Amino acid sequence: MKQLKNEKEIFKEILENYEENIETYEVMVEKTGKKQNHRKLKDEQYESQLNEAIVKTMRENKGLNKDLNIKLKLGWPFNRVINPWIHLYYLDKNAKGRRGRYAGISFDMKNKKVEMWIGFGMTGMRKNQLIEAKEQYCNEYKEMYGNNLERGFAYTSIYVDATIIAKSIPIDEFNNEEFRKDIAYLTNLYINFENRGMVYREETQENTVRVEESEEKYQFKKSETLMGKNILYKGFPGCGKSHEVARRFLMNKKGEKIDENLYERVTFYNEYTNAEFVGTIRPCIKNNIPTYQFMPGPFTTLLKKAIKNRETNFYLIIEEINRGEAASIFGDIFQLLDRENDNGRSQYSITNSLIADYIYKDENRKIYLPENFSIIATMNVSDENVKPFDNAFERRWQDRWIFDSKGSYDDKYIKGMEQITWGKFRKVINDVITSQQGILKNEDKQLGAYFIGESYVTDITEKNNIGREEFLYKVIINLYTKTCKYDKTLMFDEKIKSINEVAKVFLSKDYLYVFKEEIRNALLK
Q1: At what angle do helices 176-194 and 7-17 cross, to 10 degrees?
Q2: Cα separation, 30 vs 158, whole angstroms
Q3: Are 298 and 247 in contact (CB under 8 A)?
Q4: Among 172, 363, 413, 516, which residue has the least CB neighbours within 10 Å?
């Protein structure tokens, strides 16, 4: 075999001499019990030289990722015809093998053409599964790169074999420099897509999610870091819901805040609308001409970022979700809250031309929540002036209850109350609440660790009333008017008959006498 210097020489050698150097042999397939034709080169030395030339030449292409596994294969990957092809698939260093999506170069022996493509394994798939899988892959590529690819590459018909993207070049028009650019572009498409986290794996691989239809089995890698969720944090006021949300989702492993571009934070309230949350068309001025333009809300703004950056998690944080008309604010997005169990993507898509045009510049595209887009909400279960959830809305959320626990300043002293710590005060009051029965047992009226801010406490004891007035307005009056709404003697001395008397006694030197004797003794113990 002569020394091959570049791609064109290698490909001409393959096209012109391949058939005369090949032989076919039969192999018994244990799974089916049938024989299958396999192919190999008659001359192993010729095959070795050809492979060496391919690898050396392709490695010189600076556009190729160093982890691409380059090797000549015999036979079309789907056993359709006897054609050679070159494997260029991205080799995951943690993978033992792969039979999923491939990048490659194949050779049309009859028409003397070279085809560059991205395809996927179809072994064991029925026709309807093949079409469904191909349609899914094409849609996902379009979400990343749009409908129009560069350098002459195009999406193939979903009814033609198992290629997703392809470009064909007559060997007579072959140009080494342009070919290198084509392969660099193709492999970048492929690698960026594979790095999103959903990768087709061999059944022997771990960390997979199995999808079964009849006897056919095919698997996708389950991302350990990308899993879209709808989580609803519940608890009484000050229990630390927002603190927990920030700790879990808005901090990195080093305890540092994540980039503000990775999340949006909104608060629902009575007048908050779908137009503010999702977006709406508003008048504006462009080039001194009045016109109308879609102005995205926080939901749509963050969704676009998530779809354009599929390897990164994005979080939509909704505070006080039950203070607004949640179902009305979500509108048709409500349907997207149903998530797939394996990756957290929306089970269903919706048609929303305004969102589609803003994200894809194509108003006909379907809208869904990707696996890297999570919605995290909080709600106070004790709020009286709230909008109740219906069952259909609430079932689409994963509940997380934040129970009472020690806060970061429970050991600090309440300003103006000498030797009484905030933790001790909370425990005494909460014990009274939880010890009641029937209508008086309002567990959601308990005082959470963060019901007050750090400005209400101090590290040292102080024998004065500085700061006690603020505590009166924040805590004491709340206990009198809300927690003890139906029975003031639950906590307060029977001599106290009004809010005025609560304030007068609590701001005096005998401030603890605002409470009944059992509570006074517990606080001083």
Answers
A1: 90
A2: 31
A3: no
A4: 172
Which whole-number Å values give the CA distances from 467 to 159, 415, 417, in the listed order? 75, 5, 9
3-state secondary structure labels for all residues of 146-166: CCCCCCCCEECCCCCCCEEEE
Beta carbons within 10 angstroms of residue 119's beta carbon: 24
Q: Are 133 and 299 in contact (CB under 8 A)?
A: no
Q: Where are the alpha helices (DSSP H) in 400-444?
A: 422-434
Tell me which of 118-127, 233-242, 267-276 is least confident: 118-127
Between 352 and 217, where is the model more confident?
352
* DSSP label at residue 100: S
Cα gap 191→40, rounded to integer Å: 29
Q: CA-to-CA distance for 197 and 310, rounded, in angstroms?
A: 9
Residues in contact with 43: Cβ distance below 8 Å, sequence separation at least 6, in sequence order: 21
- C-alpha–C-alpha distance, residues 491 and 433, integer Å: 9
451: left (phi over 0), alpha (psi -120 to 50) or beta: alpha
- Cβ(305)–Cβ(366) below 8 Å: no
Nearest to 306 by CA among 257, 248, 263: 263
| Joined tokens for residue 151 | 């350098």
Cα distances (Å, whole numbers) of residue 277 to 268, 327, 329:
9, 12, 7
Q: Which among 44-58, 163-177, 346-360 has the top mean pLDDT?
A: 346-360
Q: What pLDDT shows up at residue 440?
A: 53
Using alpha carbons, select from 190, 178, 108, 112 the residue that is nearest to residue 149.
190
How many beta carbons lie within 10 A of that of residue 126, not counting itself?
13
Hey, which residues does 65 pair with through a beta bridge? none
Closest CA to 315 of 349, 265, 275, 274: 265
Determine contact, residues 298/266, Cβ cutoff 8 Å.
Answer: yes
Residues 6+ apart with CB under 8 A from 238: 447, 448, 449, 450, 451, 452
Indicate the pLDDT class of residue 502, thresholds 50, 70 and 90. Answer: very high
Tell me whether residue 413 is exposed, middle or buried, using C-beta atoms within 10 angstroms of its C-beta: 0 to 12, 13 to 18, 19 or more. buried
DSSP designation for 12: H
Rounded distance between C-alpha atoms, residue 125 and residue 129, angstroms: 6
Q: Count of H helices and E strands in the chain?
A: 15, 21
- Tally of CA atoms within 13 A in the half-sphere of 296 that contains its CB: 17
